[in-house]
Amino acid sequence: MIEIEINGNVVKAKAGEMLIQVTDREGISVPRFCYHKKLSVVASCRMCLVDVEGAPKPQPACSTPVNEGMKVHTQNDKAKASQKAVMEFLLINHPLDCPICDQGGECELQDVAVEYGSDISRFSESKRIVPDGDIGALIQADMTRCIHCTRCVRFGLEIAGMMEMGGTGRGEHLKIEPFLKEGIQSELSGNMIDVCPVGALTSKPFRYELRSWQMHSMPNIARHDLVGSNLFVQTYKGKVKRVVSADNDLINETWISDRDRFSYEGLTHKNRLLEPQIKVQGQWQQVSWKVALDYAVKGLNSHVLKHQKVNQLGGLASSTATMEEFYLLKKILTEVGCDNIDHRLNVKNLDNVITLDSNIKLGALEKIDYALIVGANIRLEQPMINHRLRKATKKGADIDELNVMAFDFNHPLDTKNITAPNKIAPTLAGVLKSIMISNTQELPDYLLAVEVGEVANNIAAKLLNSRSSVIILGEHIINNEDASTIANLITQIAQNTNSKTLNLSITANTMSANWVGFVPQNSGMNVNTMLASDMRGFILLDIYPQYDFHDLETAVKAFTKDDTFVISLNSFKDDIVAGYSNVILPIASVYETSGTQLNINNDMQSYTAAVKAPDEVKPAWKVLKVMADLLALPSFHYADSAQVLAEIFHQPQTKHTHDENVNLTSKHHGISIIWQNSPYSIDAVLRHSNALQKTKIGQMNSAYMNQASAETLGLSADDKYLGVPVVITNTVADDCVFINANQAVNTQGQT
Amino acid sequence: MISIDAKKQIDAWILKYPKDRQSSAVMQALKIVQAENKNRLSADTIQAVADYLDMPGIAVQEVATFYENYNHKKVGKHVIRFCHNISCMLNGADDLILHLENKLGVKTGEVTPDGLISAKKVECLGACVGAPMFQINDEYFENLTADKIDQIVDNLK
Amino acid sequence: MIKKLSKLVKSFTLSELRTGLKITAKELVNKKITVQFPEERTPISPRFRGLHALRRYPNGEERCIACKLCEAVCPANAITIESEMRDDGTRRTTMYDIDLFKCIFCGFCEEACPVDAIVETQIFDYAFESRQGSIMTKKRLLEVGSENTQVINQTKFEDAKYK
Fold first, then answer.
1. Which of A247, A398, A537, B1 is the most buried (most CB within 10 A)?
2. Are A99 and C67 inside 8 Å of each other by CB?
């Protein structure tokens, strides 16, 4: 620690840190445009010039390291004069179109100009005009307003990991633009809107709608991935108009993914379900809540409860539900006396599930020196977690992948191991064997016959040599024939090498579902058993079977049976849901309900509703509570969701039993299919947000396979496989079709 | 996109820089690729150079648009790069550029109808001592006057 | 004593009455200053703040760009604006309402307007026949603007040199 003097006050500072960091910490205002706390320092705008005693000229605070005894004046005549001079230069080419600029009112240039700008311009020559291209569906460019701070360029290079914007031309002709005609494609691109200090980059869906001062800002939590990014929901007259990021260094730093930023558009989609509906003699009728709930409860009573057939009732929820909703649905079913609950709709074989704990914090992920990614396209599936990994690679970490396809990463990979799905478990067994041999441990029986290949040896050596490593298990494994074996091998490898593990095979709020134990216990049936057996009633929470189930047909068949009474709670209209349901209850979507999200760090983050749900739409936790009341179940006395959460805390937390079996005998032949909903199609709100669907990631819809697999399946590049256009590429492993689909057909049960 | 011969030339330049610093060869690579593509660069050729040097396309575009010796539009057989930076400007470059335009019958940035000559205004070429000056292809012509320009241009074939 | 005496003399000579009648007699022959409203009207300052109007450019394009500064500055919250991107890509209002019951005719909206779109005209004699009538919609405001284009242009021109 050293001491420096700023404006006559002595303050403490760390030697070598930049002056602007000290002034920011001390709350001394220094104007700036190009400096951003999370980006590199370029000192190009010169707005932060301050007077340092002893220096002949004013120094930029953002790139002047502090040293002992330094005397700085941020507000004396010399500093002010230089700041005003810089401001005058910046304003030479900046247009006076603040009244039509969406940044107006929250613009850094506007704010600084009030203090440092001059009333009258001395510039009478003509101003520079920059023609704008279309740079994508999410960001609107008005580059005449650009002041060349290059924050967006540095954001692309340093944070998003793909340099998309750049400064082309020279001198007065310098302009910031993307090179590709397709525009900006990063999955974090929306942050450029936040970092832009002027109105050059603004939100396209929000264009010209409102001024910043008209909206209320409500803190909320993103619900589309395992991170639970902190954000502000900005609302006007009860509608969500914009979402911007909030700072939380432990979770999302200051960034949010495009998925979290633009999903709100889905809330006002014309497909929103606005009124309760009941099906009477095959005809849908829009009715009041009272009628609908009475009908639902009567249906449950007559189909299930009255006949003592409680074990023929099932409750299924998608992973997007809140913790309170999982808990209440579970509680209803438990209190009427059945344990048939599940959220693992997408898992083919529930005797073969992944049980793997995540034991590394997001912050610690930056400090690892080796990571092994197994079965994940982590950049698109968990953008904010990938961002931490990318930071680790910048500090020199090695990352290996063990994937079925070579995905685009935005950080360098040490080795790309592209492996057929049925070879993943043997490879990991090889890694474990290699490690145990190195550690001179006695080998268990199942490893004796395992061959250790070069890939396995490499990975083992890196794991053994690293100080802190992590093994990441991704979504592509959930339907692998060896899923549980892979998870168990990873657990053992981690134990033997002191590695951490990160389980990214789950999505959205699955952590909460596991926390409240939303899986069948005791004699309860799991989802696949339920669908296969003779069920008489279902309560379905926000389920769209064509996206959520691994086998659409079986699910729909189970729901459609004549004597099966189905209560669906949904946010959006859906033909298939309407086809099998008896009652459809409209429930609130993201930002419309209070609830709790549990992220991969085990941070429990509660949020309140930012807006009231439209029309007759109610939050699902309330619907479930009232339904319980009507079923005459005691102990559902909740005034708000916080009371539900309080009760959850008093429950004994469900412990997962680890099945430690490693079974390497499975002989899977033929072609395996890995079906992934594309990143912007993973839940109903995202599927209904127009701008996201127009992006390149939103348009992803391909079945990737290599030439050999295509020949085996008798397909060529113009064909469709399971309704998805075929792309033949040698980046896919043998015997494997990797599907990234944004469409509504999901028949991944086939092999 | 890039011929084998050009790749060989670029590789020779890459070897001059430390390992993993192949992007340092970007200016030479652009020059080589431009030479074999009718003396101009298109978005595709720029992307090809980017791919070959493992750089983002926009980073190569930045270089290609910063320096005046890369052409992005159709150019003539001879390219006149007329400096109009401060020293040349003070010595009357603006008038001489007008004179050149009249002489050629086309504006700067355009090509004469016979495809022989194109002229463009460029930033400082580092020959302020002989201002005003221009460069034709790789040759500098200094201390220009209207008469001298006429003479030089007439001699271009 | 003398004061009392002088008062007595004044009252007996009807001095006050004559002073009053003198003014009456003078005004009897002077030029009249009252006017026959509404047939006749008194002159109004160009800076008068009466009924609002939205102006158009000479080419017919509406001036308002939906910056909402008038809405923000309005001390009585009388203005409500909604905006969108028009098909040609420009920023325009879809709704521009002024509630005349709320309006206090302070003229801040006119001051705040960067494009001189919202102005206060010299019209002060207007009436509504329903409660709804107090809302000046965008359509009505533009009508007032185009009906009084000349007067507005004239008064704004006259006032411009003092701004």
1. A537
2. yes
Do residues B30 and B41 lie in contact, with contact meaning Cβ atoms separated by under 8 Å?
Answer: yes
- A239 and A121 in one domain? yes
| pLDDT confidence bin for A746, thresholds 50/70/90 | low
Kindly provide the ipTM of the predicted complex, given to two decimals: 0.87
CB A577 within 8 A of CB A584: yes
pLDDT at position C36 over 80: yes
Structure tokens at B123: 């930033």
> What letters, b where the CB count within 10 A reaches 16 and e where it falls short, cover A648-672?
beeeeeeeeeeeeebebeeeeeebb
Query: Please, are residues A66 and A19 in contact by the beta-carbon 8 Å criterion?
Result: yes
Q: What is the model's pTM? A: 0.89
Decide if B123 and A170 are in contact by the 8 Å CB cutoff: yes
Give a yes or no: residue A523 inside a domain.
yes
Minimum distance, in Å, between the CA of residue B47 and any CA atom of chain A: 9
Quote the strand ranges of A498-546, DSSP E: 500-503, 537-541
C83 contacts A209? CB cut-off 8 A: yes
Nearest CB partner across the interface for A209, out of C65, C84, C115: C84
DSSP assignment of A586-654: EB--TTSS-EEEE-TT--EEEE--SSPPSTT-B-HHHHHHHHHHHTT-SS---SSHHHHHHHHHHSPPP
Write out pLDDT tens, residues A26-71.
999 999 999 999 999 999 999 999 999 989 999 999 999 999 989 9
Subunits with 3+ Cβ pairs within 8 Å of C are A
In the structure encoding, which two tokens stand for residue B73, read together? 């539009």
Q: Which of A76-90, A306-320, A428-442 has the highest mean pLDDT?
A: A76-90
d(Cα B10, Cα A734) in Å, to the nearest integer? 36
The answer to whether C114 contacts A214, with C-beta atoms less than 8 Å apart, is no
Q: Are residues A13 and A64 in the same domain?
A: yes
Considering A456, A477, A503, which residue would you say is the last residue of a domain?
A503
Chain B residues in contact with A167 by the CB 8 A cut-off are: 62
| Size (chain B), residues | 157
Say whether both A190 and A264 belong to one domain: yes
Q: Which domain covers residue A411, as residue numbers?
A: 363-503
- Please judge whether B123 and A171 are an interchain contact, meaning their C-beta atoms are less than 8 angstroms apart: yes
Q: What whole-number distance in Å separates Cα of residue A744 and Cα of residue A733? A: 26
- Can chain B be said to touch chain C, i.e. do they have 3 or more Cβ pairs within 8 angstroms? no
